[in-house]
TrEMBL record:
InterPro entries according to UniProt: FANCB
Single biological process term from Gene Ontology: negative regulation of double-strand break repair via homologous recombination
Protein name, as recorded: FANCB protein
Species classification: Eukaryota, Metazoa, Chordata, Craniata, Vertebrata
Organism annotation: Polypterus senegalus
GO cellular component, one term: Fanconi anaemia nuclear complex
Amino acid sequence: MVQAQIMSGKGERKSDLHFKRKTFSQEEGKFVCTSEGNATFCSHSTVTTEIVCFSTVTVSENGLSEPCILLKHNSKKRTNFKYSLLLFHCTNILEPCLEFKLQYEVTDNVTVLNGPTVLWTHGNNVYCVSSKSNIISIVPVSFSSVKFIGEIKTKGIAIVGVRECTAEEEHDSQSDQAVWGNELIAYFLESQSIFDGALFLPHAYSAVVTSLLILTVEGTEDNLETSVIAATSKNQLIFFEGGMPKKVCQLPFDGPIDIRQATTGRNEVLFVVAFSSGKVCAVRKECWQVVSSWQNVQAMHIDDFACCGSDQILLIFENSSIIEDNLENFTLTDVCEITFTSGLVLIEELQKQLEVKDQILMKSSKALMNLVYGQEYSLSDAEEEGLVSLWDEERSSQSSSSEILAVPKKLPDLVDKVWQRVIGDSWVVGVNLKDAAYLSLDDISLSLLMDNDICTAAPVIQWNSNMLHFSKILPFVSFRPCQAEPNPKRKRFEPSATFSGSAYDEESFSQIQKSELWAVIAVTDLSHFLAFGDQNCTVLLHATLKENPQGGWKGGDRVIFQCSTIHFSMEDITLGRYLPKLMMNSELLTGYGSVGGRSEVQESADEEVFHGLSFPAQVKVCSRTADLDQI
């Protein structure tokens, strides 16, 4: 969290921006200042500087998510207004990334989105300016009122508003626009396309909707599928799907003005509604009911303040002040498992619970590290008595922690090779298996253990794992094709005879056809690692064993293999060393090669590419139509 304040000296011709970067300390139950800085704006005594808004955006140049602040510099005559957007870097450096001048003051629908891009409304027009062009442009659609300005994952920046009907449309008495006197219009900034607002919600709701939150927009222009949350002046929260209302929830307060989404613990989704009277309520998506509400709220923010991998709601109440650099009178909650309130009386009990959690986490981390490096770690009986399952599941009395994590000594080495590729904006890590006969292929995945020298807390990064199955060609033994001879002339093949390659061995060829290759891959967004630079990661393979009485292990046992250590290098990515190596001759992918010797693929290619993923040369792809979108 970044806290900023404008400080002007009396009689001085300058304005100072004092900012602090704070993190929430669960042990102390408060926000602690980690760094601070100052920025001075030299100006005339007739010019004042004010804060317009804060936001957190993804910078297009480096892909990092950074907080920013929009400032307004205006003269006392209020004839000229200059706006500047500043980025807060982690090194306590303010970077000016956008400046523009206007003849009027921006007051309505000021929004800062990724890029960064600044949008606002003035009159019936919507204006925008981005850091790339630094040129103010106007949206070619006039809106009498704007209901939504935001960014949609698949369509980019979208603007949804109400447009009054023209004289020609009013003559058409059968149209919805003529009946209600106005219509909803959706405009997508990047594609410069206009859509009928009825795809989001009926035109009849345009007069009563006070705020919109667009969840998804998928499909083509001819077949657009949407899901929208709308708050109305009737104090209702309505869920629309495909332009039709599906769920309705009665809100407890009047005047809803803003809707935000929060993904809390256990993947529960909350829709947080703010009201003009300083009240806030939370509606759970699953049951579509109000689960909590607050009053006298001055500001509301949603982010992962507790660094636990999910969102929390930060509510700063009225009459809140900063005493000895500490924020007073606030609540941090996810309406599920986490709730921190300033001035909590039972702070000692909370600290004891945190100490116990820290001890368990430290011991669990130590046990995991010992497992990775092949060392044994055991808890005493006294320590095991107080442990309970972290998940709502029954504890098996027949299996212990050592049976779940220990790798059987008789289990052969299953890992053939570990590789990595960069495809588009994704980082792909794969493990080729020598033999998957001992593993349950329905329950197998990869994870990466990062070096924690660069940060105090390991980042929570989501990986998508999948199992790929290919037919594999072993090196062919050359033979001469010949016509089949009559049975009396065929020479019987003796088991003791040495196979010279001159005879046709149907059993060997059948074995070649049945050869298979299994590869486990994990895919994540490359932008997660850009902030950490060069990094060593340990690749761990999580799997469940099959039943094998001869091997000395039981079916269903969970094991973790330490496959290898890979190096994530920004220099190698810049030089394109991890990019797939595409083959110029597409005919090499259509067959197994010649049967009289090594194929052209085996002779010339070190690697083969299968739909954008590069595999080692011994992996022979039998199909060119496989779909890797399931990864």
